[in-house]
Structures are given as structure tokens and as C-alpha cells.
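agent: user wants the structure for Exopolygalacturonase from Rhynchospora pubera. delegating to structure tool.
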Amino acid sequence: MAQTMSLLLILLSLSLAASNGAYNVIDFGAKPDGVSDNKKAFLDAWAKVCSSTQSASIYVPPGKFLVSEAHFMGPCKQNSVEIYIDGTIVAPSGYTSAPKWILFQYIEGFSIFGGTLDGQGQSMWNCRTSGSNCSEASTSFTIAQSKDVKIQGLTSVNSEGFHMLIFQSSGVTMQNIQISAPSNSPNTDGIHLQLSDHVIIQGSNIKTGDDCISMGAGTRNVLIKDTYCGPGHGISIGSLGSIAHEQGVQNVTVSSVVFRDTTNGVRIKTWEKHYQGYVQFIMFQNIVMYNVSNPIIIDQRYCPHNKNCPNQTSGVKISNVIYSNIRGYSDTEVAMKFDCSPSNPCQGISLQDIRLTYQNQQAKSFCDNASGFNSGTITPPSCL
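agent: tool returned. relaying C-alpha cells verbatim.
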């Protein structure tokens, strides 16, 4: 019901934009033929809106608009820029050779409603899976060093790399986001947060080849709710601790999320290196798992190919993590795994009303260097 209302509001907003004198990209020379490069037309429309001293908006009508690498830069002269998209924005086929395809940077107070971004990432995926020497995969959509941002009803399909990146930004609300890429598409994280705070992600549907949502260093005050994840690698905090002087992650709530056919459910992951950091005040609650390989997992022994980190222990301190009302089916026998650092044991892990089974039988839990508390029914039996 909530998603239906959100969709109706988006449709109403798009209708109002089309009728209330928004700057139409067609008027700046854009052609919805899927062939012509419309980068200049889109940037010209942005320059007009961003330089306006009054509230202004851009309208992208139905059609397929090819746009090469486009960076929409601020600051703008007012803090109520709006973009309404009825069409599909398409990246060039083949490698884009651009780390950021669509980028919004240094902007305070703007909103995007509707629309589809098609990253056409198949060529990049083929290159990566073949083991060839590939260029850097492009992130389809980036919000960087911005404030008070609302993204509603935006769809991203087939990104070369990350679908969406929120970097060094605050006050970002993402509603009714739809993300889709094949389960075997490499490194196609749905939404990645880095050095950002006060972020809300809700009412979204993410199907991809890597983490549905990932949170890197410096992520704080995040709420993820009413969201579907799968296929993919779950919702992850990390990986953290790969370099020195990283900021920690704190005050994250993941609530009312459904995972289906994912390799992980809720995961905290740190490198097996000595670099210090922290993860604290985390809440995972009201979650349902269907055929998830690692429903609940803390992994502090991350060291791909045993390179650059053997014989070390993680310096990231994990504490005050709550798992509450989590139920469903594990695809592996160990449904709860707390594999923590011997030099920085996990502390304050709280399990409340956990019901996870494996092939209609009792699953198992695993603990190493972890301590905490249990309340309510805990299945499988807790090892804390």
C-alpha cells in the first residue's frame, strides 16, 4: 500500500512538472532516439536551472536519451532544484571509461523523481568475468558532497559497477528505488554509502550481483526499512579496515527487510589487518530470510587470496550490535556466525527472538571471540 501511494505521488509530480513550465530537455536540443548524445542538452538545462534565483526544475519526457559521462555541478543559487524524469537515460554501449557516469556534486537541496538509468554494463561484465585487463567499471549514479537530497522512484538497471553511490553527503532520503542486474554481474552493488550521515533508504527493491546495500567507512545515522533484497550478497557493513585511519560506522538500523536467495543476510565484514576502526550501535530487526546462505554473519577474517594480510588480526572493534526478531530459512547449516578478531573481540552482541532453520531442521551457530546476551527464543541455540 505504501509503495502504491509512493508511485501515485511520483506520477502526480511528473504530471505537474510537465504542465508547470519546467525546463524540458527537448527544448535544449535533446533527442529521444537512443542514438544521439544528449550530454550537452542535459548540462545546458542544468546550467539554466542551477543559475536561477527562484525554484526551478528540469523535465525529461518519455523516450530513450543517450547521455555520455555527465557531471551536474553546484552550488546552485537556490536550494530547491527538482528533476522529473519520465524517460530512460542510457549510457553508451561498451566501456564508458568514466568512473562516474551521472554525478551530482556540491548541491544543497535538490530532488529527483522517477526515471530509469540504463548503464548497459554487459560488455564490462564480460570483460571482468573473462579475466581480461578491464578499465574501471563506471558507477551509474553518484551523489557527492551534497546535502538535503531526495531521490524518489528512480530505477537503475545493468550498471557497469555500483548502481548508486552516496559519498560525503548528509540528509539523503531514497524512496521506492528499483535496482536490477543479473545475479552473476560482478561488483554491481545496489547502493553504497561512504562518509555520509543521516541517510534513509525505504520502500525499495534491489536485485543485483553484489551487495544490495553496502556501508563503508564514515557511515553514520542510517535507516534502511521496508526493502527487498535478492538476489545479491545481502546488506553489508564493510568491508572495513583495509587502510589506516578509516572512520568508523555507527548508528545504523536495518528494519523490515526481506532477503531471498542471497549469499548473506545482514553482514559485518572487516579485513584481517591491524588497522584500527569501529562498528557500534547497530540494530537489525524484523527481518525475514528465504534461502540465505549466511543469514547472520560477522566476518573479521576477510583476506581475499591470503594476500597482504596473512598472520594479522583485525583492528576493527565491533560492539553493541542487536539482532531482533529475525526468522526464516538458512541455505547452510551455520545460520549464525560470529567470527571475531582475537585482538579485538566482539562485545555487546544481543540476540532477541531469533528463529532460523536449515532444511526444516535445527541449524547451528558459531562463535569465536564474541560475547553478548540472549533473550526470548533463540534458534539455533546461541553460542554467545
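agent: one observation worth passing along. Residues 9-20 have pLDDT under 50 and may be disordered.
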